[in-house]
Amino acid sequence: MALIVHKYGGTSMGSTERIRNVAKRVAKWARAGHQIVVVPSAMSGETNRLLGLAKELSPSKQDDAYARELDALAATGEQASSALLAIALQAEGMPAVSYAGWQVTIKTNSAFTKARIESIDDKRVRADLDAGKVVIITGFQGVDDGGNVTTLGRGGSDTSAVAIAAALKAHECLIYTDVDGVYTTDPRVVPEARRLATVSFEEMLEMASMGSKVLQIRSVEFAGKYKVPLRVLSSFTDWDIDINEEAKSGTLISFEEDEKMEQAIVSGIAFNRDEAKISVLGVPDTPGIAYQILGAVADANIEVDVIIQNISRDGKTDFSFTVNRNDCAKTVELLNTKVLPKLGAEDVISDTKICKVSIVGIGMRSHVGVASKMFRILSEEGINIQMISTSEIKTSVVIDEKYMELAVRALHKAFDLDQPV
Ligand code: ASP
Ligand code: MG
Predict the structure, then answer these.
(1) Measuring CA to CA, which of 20, 49, 123, 392 is 20 to 30 A from 320?
(2) What pLDDT is stored for residue 58 in this prediction?
(3) Quick one: pLDDT at residue 87?
């Protein structure tokens, strides 16, 4: 018997029919003798629908102006799906109870729409589990010190599930979703992409931050910090498949690297089109320029990703970095008004038609020549590299957006990711 957390995404909870299937699957696990805590997302489309209603009533205001109410609103999506699941379980003859985050209590800070979990009280949940009930806890939300309902940011139910699994010291956290695991790359771009049976936690962290959308990045960070074993698997298999088979399906995000290191050098290719490149040209090359440029950007709460500073010629240099595309215009304006005049730089230019492609793999630590192979493949395809950034287990390049699919396909093939391991 083990304590296991199940998380079901919005599509898995998308209709009463699907909720009934989730209930049958959960009941199967509980009847096999496990203690089960379920963390559901809102029914698919519901969070967007609710936030859309708010926009209709206040189209001109910035979201931050009524962030508290947005959270009170959006949190209802998960309350509804949780209660519906409890009803479906009871209809299956399985005792079940649902709680909203504030009832558990899941304490967060007060950063509405992007709150962070601070603590989880497990008393009530454990008492119910010991009484033989399935416990359902709303994903995506908590409550702050002032008793206000908060939400954890879009996709936050993943983080709720992992945090709850950590608090309960669960044996495993199963993330049920509409794909059957983590792939070597997005199968929509490369049909030969393969499902990975295991991926190391660090690789998953890189892939999530590099644009793989399977898990919310904060959930992966949380899993790493508390060593919660995570598995991503499909909720669209027959609910009554053999439980042992189901328990081994999908992709395990593992903390044991040794076996993995024997395998592929590159485990996956991630890409994202969400960034824009900004260059400050003709910057006088003196101490403190990086701070003056990026300090101003950070003060405006804009996140910076890849950074490049060139060597200087005639005492001047160019300085480039990437930001989220949505922040591009704001960043350019900030640099033009606040930074350029002070710095005496020549110009600011931006390019939104870029993308970032990354190869990720634990094996890169112990193998040389992986990055250079990446550069060779791209050059053979005639793709120009604009920026490069590396870590121990990843190499990212920024290239023209129009070559993204070509680059991903070529790299996927060159690193043998379409071959069975
Ligand atoms: N319902 C929330 C969203 O759509 C949280 C989640 O599904 O993880 O972002
Ligand atoms: Mg999700």
Answers:
(1) 392
(2) 85
(3) 98
Ligand 1 in reach of 114 Cβ (< 6 A): no
Determine the average pLDDT of the residues in 355-376. Answer: 93
Which of 8-22, 136-150, 257-271, 288-302 is predicted with the least confidence, judged by mean pLDDT? 257-271
* Closest ligand to Cα 156: 1
Model pLDDT, residue 217: 85
Instruction: Label residue 60 by pLDDT band (50, 70, 90).
Output: confident
What's the pLDDT at 420? 78
3-state SS track over the chain: CCEEEEEECCCCCCCHHHHHHHHHHHHHHHHCCCEEEEEECCCCCHHHHHHHHHHHHCCCCCHHHHHHHHHHHHHHHHHHHHHHHHHHHHHCCCCEEEECHHHHCEEECCCCCCCCEEEECCHHHHHHHHCCCEEEECCCEEECCCCCEEECCCCCHHHHHHHHHHHCCCCEEEEEECCCCCECCCCCCCCCCCECCEEEHHHHHHHHHCCCCCCCHHHHHHHHHHCCCEEEEECCCCCCCCHHHHHCCCEEEECCCHHHHHCCCCCEEEEECCEEEEEEEEEECCCCHHHHHHHHHHHCCCCEEEEEECCCECCEEEEEEEEEHHHHHHHHHHHHHHHHHHHCCCEEEEECCEEEEEEECHHHHHCCCHHHHHHHHHHHCCCCEEEEEEECCEEEEEEEHHHHHHHHHHHHHHCCCCCCC
The CATH architecture one would assign to domain 3-256 is 3-Layer(aba) Sandwich (3.40)
Distance 135 CA to ligand 2 centre (A): 20
Q: What kind of fold does domain 268-414 have according to CATH? A: VC0802-like (3.30.2130)
Domain ranges of the chain: 3-256, 268-414
Of all protein residues, the one whose alpha carbon is nearest to atom 5 of ligand 1 is 155
Single pTM value for the model: 0.86
CA angle, residues 47, 49, 50, in degrees to nearest 5 = 65
Per-residue tokens: 383:
């793709």
> What average pLDDT score do residues 235-242 get?
95
Q: How high is the pLDDT of residue 237?
A: 93
- Whether ligand 1 lies within 6 angstroms of the CB of 150 is answered as no
